[in-house]
Amino acid sequence: MPNLDFYAAGDDWSAVLGVVFDLGLFRVFESDSEPDRELREFHAATEVPGGRQGRHLALFVTGSGPAPVARRIDLRPGALGDATFRYCCEAWGLVQLYHGGPAGTDELRWSHANHNTEKRAAAWSATLPRLGDPAQWNWPAVTSASGRLNRAVRRMAVDKIGSHPVLPHAARFIEEGGLRYEYGTGIHATPSFGMSRR
Length: 198
Prior knowledge:
- By secondary structure, the chain is of the alpha+beta class.
- It has four helices and 14 strands.
- It has helices at 12-23, 118-124, 139-156, 168-177, and strands at 4-6, 26-30, 41-42, 56-61, 69-74, 85-90, 95-98, 101-102, 107-109, 111-115, 159-161, 164-166, 181-183, 186-188.
- The protein has a six-stranded antiparallel β-sheet with strand order 1-10-7-4-2-3, covered by helices on one side. Strands 8-9-14-13 form a four-stranded antiparallel β-sheet, covered by helices on one side. It has a two-stranded antiparallel sheet with strand order 5-6.
């Protein structure tokens, strides 16, 4: 399966980004541009910003298919202050890499890596003709690169909660925050409504 949900906090994300670039398999784009800005491509882990734009990335497996498209999205007046547009990165075979991270001190959300499958892309191709023909993609190359990234992240883990690898700084955050209840999209210090305490 291409999907991997994992726990990362603090410097774990920098380590994951280091792996992304060290593998030498990907061109790295922000998933969505800042308002009124062009979509950026990053060439080193140090170029990836620390804020929201560095937490949602689109990884293009080099040579796997047509280059990603920066699709312009016109914004409603006032939706994002004075901004009038933004761009999003689109292509059938992109690997999505999202950093969930801490939400306050009592929740740690999953980070996530995943990509389309050939079957899913083919099923949606009539709905999204702007993305071209999914058959133009080398899906085994996409799956292989995604799998290599997932295995590298798993090797970084110091623990596991269910099927979710826990990276070193996340393990410390979970321990120090007393996070014990996994539900929704992460692990929490308190149980969900109706959940029995352990």
